[in-house]
Write a structure and sequence with these properties.
about 350 residues; mainly alpha; two-stranded antiparallel ribbon; 18 helices; 2 strands
Amino acid sequence: MNALTRSAEDLWSKAVEALGDEDRICINFQEDVDGGAHSGDLLSSDRLAVLKGVLRNVDEKKRICMEKRWKYKKGTKTIIIRDQLEKVTDWVNKFKQIGDIAVQYDPAHAALPWTGVRFFLQVTVNDSQTFGAMVDGLEMITDLLTRYTIFEHLYLQEAMIGQIKNSLKEQLTQAITRLYISILKYLSNARRYYDRRTAARLAKSIVKNAESTVGLYIESILTEKANVDECARLVDAAYRQHISTITSAYQTSILEKLQKLGDLLGTIDEPIRRSATKISEIHDTLQRQERQAMFNWLSRTQHKQYHKTVGKDFLQQSGQWLMEHPSFAEWRSDSCSSILWLHGIPGSGKTKLAYAC
């Protein structure tokens, strides 16, 4: 059997077993999504179908969000909902890559949270604030599902379990299981809220109570996430010590697959931006000719040629202070579309700084 086929334990099954009866009923999403068998009994091919279904639902919701120009308020920030949906797409595609590396990854309940994600994407919500909060939660969940599935493979798959102390392995196993339990409870609580009639959902008292309750579950998820990260840090140190002793070709092949998973994990924290192609092909309601006519009306400056001209006397490494400024770094890494206003007197170097970017 491939050394990366499965972890020693099915942690999603353990998480389901730890739930109360009411939560177990609420997370049985499969019958509502497809009218099929219980989600725990899905075959591998069906799990792939669930992921494909999630992607189709996300694309449909992105189209709707673009047509309605939907945004929502999160504290003091305004979030563009389609940006959050774009992140969901990225997490799903990265999760599929895990299956390409660890070919037979197939724990019995691994598809359960994904059927939950698909269920919520199929819920009809006509209020942008409510829908935005839901999508924000789904983006967090899909991030966690992808991130910690990789953690399972890196630190708990069979080929490497013998190389770490039982106490460390048990701590990490319990921490990931508790995280999965908190995710399932979040989905169960959200299900109760969205199962209400639309009029009841929009009642201010219920919305306030739901947001407060969901906030508690999100806080629980973030607490368990921090615990997993700390345990993983200790286990990772033990692995790195073991890697230096690898000599056999068999172990080397395992290491190569672990490296691929590590590389995939490293890409998770990279900023996710909307694809310009998708914006123009799916979202933009203006025709290309109309758009070009508008640009020409705004300005007839040949901006590409002007950009090259500015760069002729540009001093390399100039403007690094701006690249390293916290406000610039935050703006550049943000997945939401926004404008950073750089202002100053004429001749102060704004054009050169823009070139440096």
